[in-house]
Specification:
Distance between the termini: 35 Å
Radius of gyration: 34 Å
Helix content: 40-55%
Strand content: 15-25%
Number of strands: 20
Number of helices: 27
Shape: elongated
Largest sheet: 10 strands, mixed
Amino acid sequence: MSAVWRASRAAVKRRRLQTFVIGLVVLCSTTTILLGLGLLAAASAPFDNAFAQQRGAHTVATFDASKVSSARLATTARRPGVEAAAGPFGQAVLEMPEDWLWMPAGSLSVVGRAEPDGPVDRIHLLEGRWATAPGEIVINWPIAGTPGRDSLGTELRPRGGPALTVVGFATSMSKTAGGWVSPEQMERLRPATHQMLYRFSDAATERELRAGLSTATARLPADSLVTAQTYLALKRAFAAQADAYVPFMTLFGVLGLLISVLIVGNVVSGAVVSGHRHIGVLKALGFTPNQVMAVYLTMVSVPAVIGCVLGTLIGNAATGPILRVAFAGIDTGGAEIGTSWWPSVLCLAGMPALVVVTALIPSVRAHRLPAAQAITAGSSPRTGRGLRIQRRLGGTRLPRAVSLGLGRPFARPGRSLLTMAAIVLGVTTVTLTTGLTSTLLAFVDDDGATRVRVEAGSPTGGDTARRLSDRQTEQRLRSLPGADRVTVRGLTRVSLAGHTEPVYANFYRGDTRDLATHVVDGHWPDRAGQAAAGPAFLDQHGLSVGDRTTVLLNGRQTPVTIVGRLSDGNAKALDSNWQTLRRLDSSFQAAEYTVRLTQGADVRKYVDAVRAADPALRPSVLRPDNTVATTVVGFSSVFTVLLTVVASLGVFNTVLLDIRERRRDLGMLKSIGMTPRQVMTMTMSSVAALGVVGGLLGIPLGIVAHRLVVDHVGVIVFPEFTKQVWHLPQLAALMLAGVTIAALGALIPARSAARLTIAKVLHNE
């Protein structure tokens, strides 16, 4: 074994360039694959970790207090299939008349609990302390960070209820409440419902969860169960934003893996082919066939392991910032968003194994090659189909250097096919990135009009009281010079029947033509009792266009029909109109207005006029939010660069091996008058044809991949016009991508071939 190791180490040192290529290919491939696997793992891992740590509830059930007693509910914890249970807890809904702690007015569900710990739903305290006395409340803070200790002590004044002082901020992955009070305080609120939290032995699917809840509540009155929400719906909501990135990350990971297999196979096979003489020398020195095979497997494994380790380190370092962008604003229950351990382990074990398996076939050739044949290999030029094709091309009007170069790929068809396949995948990646960029730019492109957002202070007081009412504000904004359209939005928290987690509702009036352009299925809600929502909201709540649900606000409720599906939208919000809001709260006063200005209007003059009309109005110029587009384009660009580098390395290796095998031929050509410029032309021509064919095959594959990605982004429905991004000039430019990849890979070896001297090439012949 020591002899094998010494021979392998010597081979690694002697073939520095080939070793570097193997290591760099594995490094780039490992980084690409790890980025894709990291996001796939993170789409569920943080939720699973936090949910397990907090002993999250598989099902949160709400019962009518007038139809079932607390004592009877407690007996459900001992029913078959119930692994653990907590409760019953009193539950009440507080109506907040105005904005509080940067939250919009609306319903706030409050639960009475004596402590945050328990067998189910161990609430994570973020700031302050738990509510232990009447008049205290802990707020569920569902986004990253907290308002800070300065916000502790804030007094909330719900409509028709006692004042409550905020003593803490906490988070619950089970979304069991918007706030928690002590049991004594809950008794004073006279709760109308009780809450039970269950963990079941079998809870992998919605069907198992429904069966577990049915068994647990079988002995209760049939109509006592009001609502029930499972953790699977929360998990889907948690991963909704990350799911927007999963399709193209997965596709790029698959492309990276395929390119890695092709290039590593090409590099390793070339190492054996170019090392025939070395194989013969080893066998002549007494190495057994198995030892020779072990030498070549070790020779390629050393740089592969080094490249894999470095690629894993780089991938983990890059995954952190990517995940922070992908999960920005998502509640993680106090759990850190980071990479899971298994993608790193899989890459560390899988990539070297992939290299070894890929190297096994050419190494078997070294195992079987007789010593005499190996030592004499390569001392004379090869004849065959490559030479015949070169002769045929020589009969054409092409320059001699070009005809010789175009015939070279046929001399090694297997190697040429592997190289061309890598170019095809590289062009596919470039085409996919180009299409994604064009689609996203078309999606976020607006009409070029300037928009001003105007926020108003509270009509009941605050730092600056409003002079104008809601309707007066709208009329004044319309009357100011430069105003074209005014859209009024009322934002409030509401509840949906059958769901425990509150959602946000946007109620619009005024000029809603711009909003209607985002509807991709159905129409904009233009009558009372109608609503529209984005795909993520509809999927998480099991709704589709035509379905009906019930919206609750301020103790009132109204049926709502989903009449429109938006191209995108907040996963926690639905959109409706002012007529629907009037059914729920006739006194609601809007505090946000969006003004579209006429073309050429003086923005600064309009903003100053708004401030002069009412000091409580806070105008600001809206900037387009291109976060998702920027993120996707950024991710795609990184992957494209990595995969293009890997594909170019495949070309580099092919040309390098070809030059080493043809050193004698190059010397003969130079001796009869071929200039260095002609040598470069011949070398570049040998891969130019592969680049052209790779472009012709890679472009349609990239177009198909682009369509698959844009059709399967769960949180966005791209309108058809954003998918029609392919035009003749763009396709013509993409045709050059294959040639560019081939040229980048062949440039350095071609320059080295051009600089070879006749004496250096032929002195051993």
